[in-house]
Design a protein that fits this description.
2 domains, Immunoglobulin-like, Nucleotidyltransferase, domain 5, four-stranded antiparallel sheet, about 350 residues, alpha/beta
Length: about 350
């Protein structure tokens, strides 16, 4: 890359990963997707700042960008934080370590990397828009009455806001939405948790909604293992710690239904007198064949509904008139590893 082509590096700091990209002067991203590295935020500010510096160096290597071409860095983190990038003295999302309270993360990253850093809360960042589209126990189709709140079901609100900003020449047009952190809380979270079975269903529905939105460029699962449960609801906002029970495993390591569902998500939607089925074989590296099973009313076991071939990215869909009470998918990898998702109901 010549020195005349100057760029901005975007760093999105999350609860488990840092996501990085590079944007050139024409508004073109030099990578097609997110480039992830561990964020290590739970180890405190010093370790996390080093992790952000490592993410910066890594994205330069991935894109073949020379450091001399970088005009500056756009940094975003979860809030609450000040406009100048100082984490709230009462704590913030993902920043449970007491050392984070009142920490100037923008200034620390700028000092460490030695380039100008512009900060934004990740709900407002715009070089690539990172959003955490969580929803409450009411389910993935819930829309908050507050017009400035965006769940997975109301991403159009976010798209419209980005379009307005682009028309005002505040950001490039067509900025993609990266759902850099998403999960469904299950019990034992007594405030927002649903049953473990519903968690698997809701998570798949949310992913299908993200997949169907052409503006969404990425969908990331948070967490793998549940956080411990402790403290009253929203205690994290006043310096305590609630944590997330959005994992594929309980804190004990016991598998939830989502552990088996995440590799092969499945949704079944009621369509008139029939059903529309959609799914993904996440571990595949190309087109493959997956078996869809159905349990009929009064039956004690599942039978094959259809063997369907995915596209090259592992996605598949079809319509069915067969009235079942639950569905699941089965896939055997080329290495003969068997994946079987949990029972899924129709919505």
């Amino acid at each position: 890359m010549g020195q005349e082509q100057q760029v901005i590096v975007g760093l999105d700091n999350g609860g488990t990963t840092n996501n990085a990209t590079v944007l050139d002067a024409s508004g073109r991203f030099l990578v097609d997707g997110l480039v992830e590295t561990p964020s290590r935020v739970r180890e405190g500010p010093a370790v996390a700042v080093e992790a952000l510096a490592a993410s910066f160096e890594h994205i330069l290597q991935v894109t073949g960008t020379g450091r001399e071409a970088v005009l500056g860095i756009g940094l975003d983190t979860p809030g609450p934080a000040s406009a100048a990038g100082v984490i709230s003295t009462r704590g913030a999302v993902n920043f449970a370590d007491p050392a984070w309270r009142g920490f100037d993360i923008r200034g620390a990253v700028e000092a460490r990397i030695g380039l100008p850093v512009v900060y934004n809360n990740d709900a407002n960042a715009a070089s690539l828009y990172a959003h955490h589209a969580y929803f409450p126990a009411a389910g993935p189709k819930y829309v908050w009455p507050q017009k400035d709140s965006v769940t997975i079901a109301s991403l159009s609100r976010l798209s419209n806001a980005l379009n307005s900003a682009a028309r005002a020449h505040a950001i490039p047009g067509g900025v993609p939405i990266y759902l850099t952190e998403f999960g469904v809380n299950s019990k034992p979270n007594k405030f927002e948790g649903v049953s473990a079975a519903k968690q698997a269903e809701y998570d798949a529905i949310a992913e299908h909604m993200a997949y169907s939105n052409p503006r969404v460029a990425a969908f990331s699962q948070y967490l793998f293992k549940d956080d411990p449960v402790g403290g009253p609801f929203s205690v994290s906002a006043i310096g305590g710690f609630v944590g997330f029970q959005t994992g594929l495993e309980y804190v004990s390591g016991q598998h939830k239904p989502l552990y088996n569902g995440f590799p092969v998500p499945l949704t079944v939607s009621k369509r008139g007198h029939g059903f529309s089925l959609w799914g993904l074989v996440r571990p595949t590296s190309g087109s493959t064949k997956v078996t869809v099973l159905v349990k009929l009313k009064g039956a004690h076991s599942y039978r094959t509904l259809k063997a369907v071939t995915t596209n090259g990215a592992g996605y598949w869909s079809f319509n069915s008139s067969t009235k079942g009470t639950s569905w699941r998918v089965r896939w055997v990898s080329p290495a003969k590893v068997k994946y079987e998702g949990p029972p899924i109901g129709a919505y």
